[in-house]
Design brief:
The protein is mainly beta. It has helices at residues 90-98, 100-106; strands spanning 2-5, 11-14, 19-22, 25-28, 34-38, 45-58, 61-74, 84-87, 110-118, 124-132. The strands form four sheets. A four-stranded mixed β-sheet has the order 1-8-9-10, with no helix packed on it. A two-stranded antiparallel sheet has the order 2-5. Strands 3-4 form a two-stranded antiparallel ribbon. The chain starts with a strand and ends with a strand.
Amino acid sequence: MKLVNLTPHEVVFFRQSDCVKTPRGFVLTANADPVLRVPSTGLARADAAERELGYVECNGVVLPCVRNDYGDVIGLPEKPEPDTLYIISSLTAQAVKKNESVSRVWQDHLRLVARTVRDGKGIIIGCCGLAEVC
């Protein structure tokens, strides 16, 4: 199976046996090394239209409140290649699910990262698996 990464960053995979679930998410065992790195080779995203809803004041600063309405999926190849899974962002996955024609063609080929692993500061450093886009 081939993996194509359509997110803006490299996806780093660790062995499932090196990922330990804690109340705060997954962490790595000592001396865990990545087993697979998948570089970004494109960018699939959801087209967004922003609507201004109003403003809020916080500590003397006026901040705009907006709503993003996500529409078309941009950046997927014309059609999926056989025996290929495409890693996309969760935001893009939401747009795919809203578009039946895209969803129908791509449903067996799109994946999200799963079981994300965080470092001691809470920053995502990799993952231990893939999730289906349902």
